[in-house]
Amino acid sequence: MALWTDATDADTVAGVPARFVAAPASTEEAAAVLRDAVRDDLAVVVRGGGTKLDWGMPPRRLDLIVDTRRLTGVVEHAAGDLIVVLRAGTPLDGLDLAGQQLALDSPVPGATVGGAVATATSGPRRQLYGTARDLLIGMTVVRPDGRVAHAGGKVVKNVAGYDLGKLFTGSYGTLGLITECAFRLHPRPGVSALVLRTAPATEIGALLAAVRAEQVVPSAVEIDAPAEGPVTLAVLVEGTATGVRDRAARLEKVLGGQATDEFPSWWGRYPWDRVGMKLTVPLSHVPDLLTAGVAIRGSAGTGVLYADAPVESAPTVVERLRATAVRAGGHAVVLTAPQPVREIVDMWGPVAGLTLMRRVKDRFDPGHRFAPGRFVGGI
Fold it and tell me: Which residue range or ranges hold the FAD-binding PCMH-type domain (predicted)?
């Protein structure tokens, strides 16, 4: 039986067409697919919900797309231990875990578990609950040679074996195929409230400092800053009715804002429709990015922000934002951009540890067949 079918015109990755598509329904089928891909020397890119296929660089070569749309569902939900094991193709939207939650917000509707882990994406509530790397406690992967590997386990403090989970998180599919992920869960909060305040960019630094000083343990502190005009600050608190009411009242007083239970349309969504950037800076330097003349949105509570740069001035804007971030001790990468922009800007910027990253790639994928060229340094 054929393990893959001919690709269609829609089967492309960052504009590069594939020759074949495979959609395994289990880890065992995925291993068989990749063993045959080794035999035929096929270059492979993994596709989940297809929401971030334009992130990173186009693959240097693409023969086979491995689609995870049939690798879906809950493998195990140990409610008493606050643990869930999910197949990689499971959509993050609409997970029903009986009063518990996987607190991994997805900024992109339709994103899958495997895609979120592979690109290390997270949303507003990373401030309280952490990122995918923090929530992940175990993983099953198929290596590029078709061998299956397991890491971690179904207990939070499991330390056996190599931590492949952290290695594969954010690797952009360059080290192998993720088929299952085990996460720790949290109880779903009974009540939530959002305190909003709109103010000039010059006042945001003082408002953020006031939130930190109030020690109300917010789940998220988000900002929405258009290219021009005032900035909206939104602070999310969750928990019991009494606790949320008291903390929201304190925030209303210190911010001069207003509490609501309705989330704005921009909440947890990327701001771009042109050139998308990810910026990381220390908390004290978040206000430095708000006067750059571009749309900025994201987590002012963790210093992880996203920018929308105009295509026509992308090289200048990218250089300016990167310089600001690097001077502050942070980073700036271009996640997505039209091909003409990709060809003239440095998508990744300076990356510490690139030599080690290349050695890891050589060890896991000596033939450089998995997502070749998609990641930093041409990995």
Answer: 13-188
CA dist list (Å): 135 to 53, 90, 107, 301:
24, 16, 17, 18
Q: In sequence order, what DSSP letters do the residues of 148-161 get, joined into one string?
A: EEEEE-SSTT---S
Do residues 124 and 200 both lie within one domain? no
Residue 180, SS3?
strand
Q: Evaluate the CA torsion angle 91, 265, 335, 348 in order and state its sign.
A: negative
pLDDT at residue 43, rounded to an integer: 98
Q: Give the span between the Cα atoms of 30 and 33, in whole angstroms.
A: 5
Q: What is the pLDDT of residue 124?
A: 96
pLDDT at 1: 46
Q: Are 193 and 262 in contact (CB under 8 A)?
A: no
Q: Are residues 284 and 223 in the same domain?
A: yes
**CATH code of the domain in which 224 resides:** 3.40.462.20
In a domain, 149, yes or no: yes
> Do 147 and 195 belong together in one domain?
no
- Boundaries of domain holding 285: 191-342
- Give the Cα-Cα-Cα angle 182, 188, 193 (nearest 5 degrees): 135
Q: Checking DSSP bridges between strand 5-6 and strand 20-22, what pairing results, if any?
A: antiparallel
- Structure-token pair, residue 262: 């309705």
What is the predicted pLDDT for the residue at 85? 97
Q: At what angle do helices 201-214 and 241-255 cross, to 10 degrees?
A: 140
Domain for residue 367, yes or no? no
Among 316, 282, 288, which Cα is nearest to 301's?
A: 282
pLDDT under 70 in the chain at which residues?
1-2, 153-162
